[in-house]
Amino acid sequence: MDDNKEKENEHEKHDGADIEEEEEDEEGHKRVVVLGPQVPLKEQLELDKDDESLRRWKEQLLGQVDTEQLGETAEPEVKVLNLTILSPGRPDLVLPIPFQADDKGYAFTLKDGSLYSFRFSFTVSNNIVSGLKYTNTVWKTGVRVENQKMMLGTFSPQLEPYVYEGEEETTPAGIFARGSYSAKLKFFDDDGKCYLETSYYFEIRKEWPATQ
Asked: Compositional bias of type Basic and acidic residues: which residue ranges (predicted)?
C-alpha cells in the first residue's frame, strides 16, 4: 500500500472517531487522553432525558439552553451582529457588521483625547462555543500601534444575543495622533475556528463629526 492510501485510510478512521488530546502527568510525561467523539448538543440533551437527576444536572451545567437554536451539527455557530461605540455625552453609535464605510472609506470617526468603549452583540447557535475571544489590531501609516486580545468566555446557544462591553479607553491626542487608521477585527474560539475576520478603516479628528 502506498503512502497516499495509508493517509487516506488514516483520515477515514479519524472521521467521527474519538477526539484525542495530549496532557502531561506529574512527572512531565505526555500521554494521550481520549475525550470521545464530539456530538451535536441536541443529541446530548436527548440522552437519558427520562433520568430526572441527570436532566437537572445538565440544566445546571449548560444553563438555559434554547433548544430552538440547536442544529443537527456538532459545530457551534457564532454571528457577530454589531459594534456599538460608547462615549460620554455622545449618542451611542451602532455599527452593523460587516461595517458600512462612508464616502471617505471610514467605518467611523473618533475625537482625539476622548473617552470611548466598544460593545459587541453576538448570537450563539447549534452548540456550546468554548473560549470565544477576539483580537483587534490597529495600524497607522503601516506601523502597528495596538494589538488587543480579549477573552470573552464560553457560551451556550440561545436566541437572545449576548452583549460584551469592553473597558473604557482614551483615544490618542495631538496632531500626530490624528489621521487615518487601518484595523483588523477577528473572532475565534479555543479550537481556532474563526467566526469573523474583517478589515476596516477609521479616522481620529480634532473634533467629533457633525453627524455620524
From this structure: 1-17
Q: Is residue 117 part of a domain?
A: yes
Taking only the tens place, the pLDDT of each residue in 147-190 is 999 999 999 888 899 999 999 999 999 999 999 999 999 999 99
At residue 141 the predicted structure's pLDDT band, cuts being 50, 70 and 90, is very high
How many domains does one find in the chain?
1
DSSP H helices in 38-142: 41-46, 52-62
CATH number at residue 170: 2.70.50.30
pTM for the predicted model, two decimal places: 0.70
The three three-digit cell numbers of residue 181, written as one number: 487608521
8 A C-beta contact, residue 168 and residue 118? no
Scanning the structure block, which residue is given the C-alpha cell 457577530?
80
DSSP state at residue 91: -
- Distance, in Å, from the CA atom of 184 to the CA atom of 75, rounded to the nearest integer, reads 25
Q: Give CA–CA dist 64/157, Å, rounded.
A: 9
**Which three cell numbers, joined as nine digits, stand for 30?**
505526555
Question: Which is it for strands 115-125 and 169-170: parallel, antiparallel or unpaired?
Answer: antiparallel
> Which three three-digit cell numbers place residue 119?
460593545
3-state secondary structure 120-132: EEEEEECCCEEEE
